[in-house]
What does this fold into?
Amino acid sequence: MRFDVITLMPALFEIVRGQGVTGRAIDRGRVHLELWNPRDYTRDVHRTVDDRPYGGGPGMVMKYAPLRAAIEAARASAPASPVIYLSPQGRRLDQGGVRAFSERDGLILLTGRYEGIDERIVDCCVDEEISIGDYVLSGGELAAMVMMDAIIRLLPGVLGDADSARQDSFMEGLLDCPHFTRPETVDGRSVPEVLRGGDHRAIRRWRLMQALGRTWQRRPDLLERRVLSQEEQDLLEEFKRSRAEAGE
Ligand code: 9D3
It folds into this structure.
């Protein structure tokens, strides 16, 4: 898959290029990352990329012409890729959206700085606007990197077999269960008994119950969108009962 990112701050993308799962995917040629800087498409001596907003007010707006030229250059290299504008006005990204994007051959990710971009770029060039959540960032670059990280780990051959298998595991759509590693007791706190025995069916049921219980407690909205099997309903009832008995 290829990512063509339009950004005034290409150096920020050294993080995805150089580190971890995303860096490895790029090194191994599974992902191609190309950066397009609107400043390289200016034609004035000052290489101006921003200007004051019509109507007045604080902040600056990214100018049409350099952005348009950078987008056209990216499109010429990646004609099949839709242009995605990272912006607070966009549709909120979730795992379903990530999965859908991961099935594309490529994406052109348009990132903004300052107050935003000239709206005529949205009209002429943008296929979709995406937000990563309801909080204020100082630009679209980190949002683009979040999106890339979430997509790249879904691509075939990027994660190891064990991790890939976990992605379509039985706990999909739920929060994770608690995890423990050695030592068995630390500062007076012990690992749950069931995890120390070898009863794999009991362990599987305990983990599923914890995942269901934690999702019910912390993210009931996730449970409302998920159909529970009979076993899952029973385990969730057991979780609620044991909690009530503990007086919580
Ligand atoms: C404080 C400035 N805001 C005035 C109401 C508007 C504003 C402009 C530019 C808010 C944020 C930004 C920069 N943000 C992004 O480019 C961005 C973003 C975000 O801030 N939150 C969640 N997802 C995204 S995607 C791109």
The longest strand covers residues 83-92. The pocket of 9D3 is lined by residues 86-88, 112, 115-116, 131-133, 135-137, 139-140, 143 (CB under 6 Å).
